[in-house]
Amino acid sequence: LQTARNTGVHHGIIQNMRYQAGPARVKEMLDRGDLGRIFHVRVVFGYFVPKRVTNRPAWFYQKEQSGGGIVHDMMAHFFDLLQYMLGPVEGIYCDMMTAFSEREDADGHRFRSEVEDAATVVMRFRSGVIADVFASWVRRKHEEVPFFEIDGELGSVICSFNELKVQSHERTADFSYDPTRQQTGYEEGWEPVPLKPTNPFEVQLRNFIAGIIAGQPCKPDWEDAVATHRLIEAAYESADTGRAVTPGGTTGG
Question: What is the CB neighbour count within 10 angstroms for residue 140?
Answer without folding.
Answer: 8
